[in-house]
């Protein structure tokens, strides 16, 4: 594991102490993980309760799903580039990468809403069957988190706009949003695997 | 402050290299999942097994390269909370599926 040695070297020459805030935010993310775990459990129980309505195989489209997945995955690495720029203290670059991440995230939410609207128009709304109730609850909870992340990104861009240096406090805010954004990408891995792909087998 | 950060830039937070490795691995794993499902070459249970394994690997890749989880002493409490949550969620999901399947069988509802 090459990265382990890099981390060890880096820590021996400079100790970076994260404020307890970041640990607190990590604990919040873990509770969020429990929310998603519960919703996945609900979906697992109800995923074949169609009540004569449409099945996942009939409803889901691979091309749209691949597009959503690509947008979220690329937004993860663009946020990563933003963090690297932040560690170098390049504010302009941080703002640029945050803006790119925002646009990719916005594209994701847009595609998801389009998919939902299409399904509801076809009569496959959350009230059609237990499977669709579980589907909409799980996927829209994730979408809501992404939307909150988008608001958070805009907030940080605005806060960064007037500054000339990145303070320790701002660094912690960026680190927490980084954890949040990458965490949502992990949840999406489970969503596209167990909700979409598993329904299309 | 900004100079302070540049002094230890790319340390312990993963540099461009770590992000690039993580991204390439994530793309390969995601593409593999999609291709397995589109190809219909495996049996249904085999396909589910394969995409589950790929998803599990990808989650670990994201945790290491994007969330920078590591085994340093500093990260000890983060890891403790993480593994507690993982255990909790596993018991919760597996337990729910076990009980609900069992109930459904006894009620003869499927």
From TrEMBL, chain A:
Chain segments annotated as transmembrane: 25-47, 59-82, 94-113, 134-159, 179-197
InterPro entries: Cyt_c/ubiquinol_Oxase_su3, Cyt_c_oxidase-like_su3, Cyt_c_oxidase_su3-like_sf, Cyt_c_oxidase_su3_a-hlx, Cyt_c_ubiqinol_oxidase_su3, Ubiquinol_oxase_su3_dom
Membrane topology: Multi-pass membrane protein
Segments forming domain Heme-copper oxidase subunit III family profile: 1-200
Coiled coil regions, renumbered to chain: none
Pfam families: COX3
Protein localization: Cell membrane
UniProt entry tagged with the keyword Membrane: yes
Entry keyword set: Cell membrane, Electron transport, Membrane, Oxidoreductase, Transmembrane, Transmembrane helix, Transport
Function according to Swiss-Prot or TrEMBL: Cytochrome bo(3) ubiquinol terminal oxidase is the component of the aerobic respiratory chain of E.coli that predominates when cells are grown at high aeration. Has proton pump activity across the membrane in addition to electron transfer, pumping 2 protons/electron.
Family named by the database record: Belongs to the cytochrome c oxidase subunit 3 family.
Quaternary organization: Heterooctamer of two A chains, two B chains, two C chains and two D chains.
Protein name as catalogued: Cytochrome bo(3) ubiquinol oxidase subunit 3
Organism: Acetobacter fallax
TrEMBL record, chain B:
Membrane disposition: Multi-pass membrane protein
First and last residue of the signal peptide: none
Record-linked Pfam families: COX4_pro (PF03626)
Protein keywords: Cell membrane, Electron transport, Membrane, Oxidoreductase, Transmembrane, Transmembrane helix, Transport
Major subcellular location class: membrane
Compartment(s): Cell membrane
Transmembrane segments: 16-36, 48-69, 81-100
Superkingdom per UniProt: Bacteria
Coiled coil, from the record: none
Quaternary data: Heterooctamer of two A chains, two B chains, two C chains and two D chains.
Function: Cytochrome bo(3) ubiquinol terminal oxidase is the component of the aerobic respiratory chain of E.coli that predominates when cells are grown at high aeration. Has proton pump activity across the membrane in addition to electron transfer, pumping 2 protons/electron.
Family to which the UniProt record says this protein belongs: Belongs to the cytochrome c oxidase bacterial subunit 4 family.
Identification of the protein by name: Cytochrome bo(3) ubiquinol oxidase subunit 4
Gene source species: Acetobacter fallax
Gene that this sequence comes from: cyoD
């Amino acid at each position: 594991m090459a990265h382990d040695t890099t981390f060890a070297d880096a820590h021996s020459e400079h100790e970076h102490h994260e404020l307890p805030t970041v640990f607190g935010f990590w604990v919040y993310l873990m509770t969020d993980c429990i929310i998603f775990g519960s919703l996945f459990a609900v979906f697992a129980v109800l995923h074949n309760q169609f009540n004569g309505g449409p099945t996942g195989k009939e409803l889901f489209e691979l091309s749209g799903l691949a597009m959503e997945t690509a947008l979220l995955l690329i937004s993860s690495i663009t946020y990563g580039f933003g963090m690297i720029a932040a560690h170098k203290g390049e504010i302009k670059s941080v703002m640029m990468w945050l803006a790119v991440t925002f646009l990719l995230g916005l594209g994701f939410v847009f595609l998801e809403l389009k998919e939902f609207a299409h399904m509801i128009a076809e009569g496959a709304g959350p009230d059609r069957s237990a499977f669709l109730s579980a589907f909409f609850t799980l996927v829209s909870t994730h979408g809501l988190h992404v939307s909150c992340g988008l608001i958070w990104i805009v907030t940080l861009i605005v806060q960064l706009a007037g500054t000339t240096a990145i303070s320790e406090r701002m660094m912690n805010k960026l680190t927490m949003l980084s954890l949040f954004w990458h965490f949502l990408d992990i949840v999406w891995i489970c969503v596209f695997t167990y909700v979409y792909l598993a329904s299309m087998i | 402050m900004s100079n302070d950060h540049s002094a230890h830039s790319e340390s312990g937070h993963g540099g461009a290299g770590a992000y690039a490795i993580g991204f390439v691995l994530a793309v390969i794993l995601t593409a593999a999942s999609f291709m397995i499902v589109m190809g219909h070459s495996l049996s249904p249970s085999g396909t589910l097994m394969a995409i589950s394994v790929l998803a599990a690997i990808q989650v670990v890749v994201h945790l290491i390269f994007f969330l920078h989880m590591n085994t340093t002493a500093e990260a000890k409490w983060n890891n403790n909370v993480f593994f507690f949550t993982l255990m909790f969620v596993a018991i919760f999901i597996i337990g729910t599926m076990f009980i609900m399947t069992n109930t459904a069988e006894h009620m003869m509802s499927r």
